[in-house]
Structure formats: C-alpha cells, structure tokens
Write a structure and sequence with these properties.
The complex is a heterodimer. By secondary structure, chain A is an all-beta fold. Chain A has strands at residues 3-5, 10-14, 19-21, 24-26, 31-38, 44-50, 56-58, 64-68, 73-78, 87-95, 103-104, 108-113. Chain A contains no helices and twelve strands. In chain A, the strands form three sheets. In chain A, strands 2, 5, 6, 10, 11 and 12 form a six-stranded mixed beta sheet that branches. In chain A, strands 3-9-8-7 form a four-stranded antiparallel beta sheet, with no helix packed on it. The relative contact order of chain B is 0.32. Classes of the chains: A mainly beta, B mainly beta.
Chain lengths: 114, 117
C-alpha cells in the first residue's frame, strides 16, 4: 500500500517571502503525484501533477514542485507568496494503472502573515 | 461547462440512521470517486465507480455503498450511522482515457458536511 507524509501541519510565512511545503511518499510500485489546494469551505483544486518526464513541474498560481525519486519526495514551492495563498495544501499519490483513488497526506496549513 | 455539484450541502442525522448523498459529475466525465474528510485530516478514498460498477474500494465497511447512474451521476449511501461518520464527504469526477483512472485529474465538488449526533 502507498502512503503520504506531509511533515509540517502548519507553515507560517510572511507575505512576498518564498515557501516550501514538504511531501514524502512511500510505495512499492510507480505512482503519479499531485498537489491539491483547499480553500475554506470549498472542495479541492488541482495545483499541479507529475506523471512522467521532467521532474520539475509547474502549476497554477505560480506554484511548482520537484519530483525526487531517490528521496521519494515531491516538495511544493512558490518564490513569493500572497495573502490569497492562505489555504490547506494536500499532497496525494495514485498508483500507475490502478483503479484506486488518491491517497492523501494529512495536509499543511499555509498561513500568510502581512 | 458545469462543475461537480453535490447535495445537500449540510446534513444532520442521529446514530443508527441511514443517509444518501448525491453527486453530479462534470460534463463528459464518466468516473466518479467518493472521499471522506474528517476534521483536520486529508481525504480518504471510499470507492470509485465507472460504467455503473464499483471499480475500486478503500478501507471502508460494507455499510458504505454507492450507485452510479447512466448519466454518470452518483449516490453514496451510509447505513447504521456512527458518530465517527461525521465528516465532509467529497465527490470527484474524472474522464476515463487510455491512461487509466489513476492518470487523470480528479475534479472535486464542494462536499456535503455530515454531522451524526
């Protein structure tokens, strides 16, 4: 079975500062990797995904993530955050070729301080 | 293009009762997945439906069941409700392409907040 660990439950950052949200995964088979964002009282929205190819993936709202197979990591980064980035961020994996759904981490609450 | 919609938005039930939650998938999407998100946790996969049949299931007991209709909309039914069933229930739809169910982006609805007293 696969699992996802998000190492930080909360990350406070000042506005316009860079941020990195950490994600590590465990799986005995190849996986696809995703980052989702959840704003208060809303469903989840896809930020970016890694399926294959270049290990640096660019997503919406200026976010990017890098897949590191040797470290089984998929950390999310943004060079300069905005107040509107305050939200819950979830890392998720799915098994290549599998019918199962996404396995999510517990989430990281990004808090932007003015 | 209409996104994923869910009804109702909020629901209060008592222990032992049964509940039905509904989901309309995004236009053109033939696969529907259901997730349970407890407070402060990430979503947990309940099951997935494709062509009106269950196509994968997470670690949930049989009292969690579902249906998918010919128009790809779906229902989640939970029998014999327990206090721990209180959660946000999320529905997600996705297209089924040659890459397989796991390959495609899942589009989430806003969820149904279920409270069991």
């Amino acid at each position: 079975a696969q699992s996802v660990t998000q190492l930080d439950s909360q990350v406070p950052v000042f506005e316009e500062a860079p941020v990195e949200l950490r994600c590590n995964y465990s799986s005995s088979v190849s996986v696809y990797l995703f980052w989702y964002v959840q704003y208060p009282n809303q469903g989840l929205q896809l930020l970016l995904k890694y399926l294959s190819g270049s290990t640096l993936v660019k997503g919406i709202n200026g976010f990017e993530a890098e897949f590191n197979k040797s470290q089984t990591s998929f950390h999310l980064r943004k060079p300069s955050v905005h107040i509107s980035d305050t939200a819950e961020y979830f890392c998720a994996v799915s098994i290549r070729g599998g019918a199962d759904g996404l396995t999510f981490g517990k989430g990281t609450h990004l808090i932007i301080q003015p | 293009e209409t996104g994923v919609t869910q009804s109702p938005t909020h629901l209060i039930k008592t222990r032992g009762q049964q509940v039905t939650l509904r989901c309309s998938s995004q236009s053109g999407h033939n696969t529907v997945s259901w997730y349970q998100q407890a407070l402060g946790q990430g979503p947990q996969f309940i099951f997935q439906y494709y062509r009106e049949e269950e196509n994968g299931r997470g670690n949930f007991p049989p009292r969690f069941s579902g249906l998918q209709f010919p128009n790809y909309s779906s229902e989640l039914n939970v029998n014999a409700l327990e206090l721990d069933d209180s959660a946000l229930y999320l529905c997600a739809s996705s297209p089924r392409t040659s890459g397989g169910a796991s390959y495609n982006e899942q589009f989430f609805g806003p969820g149904t907040r279920l409270t069991v007293l």
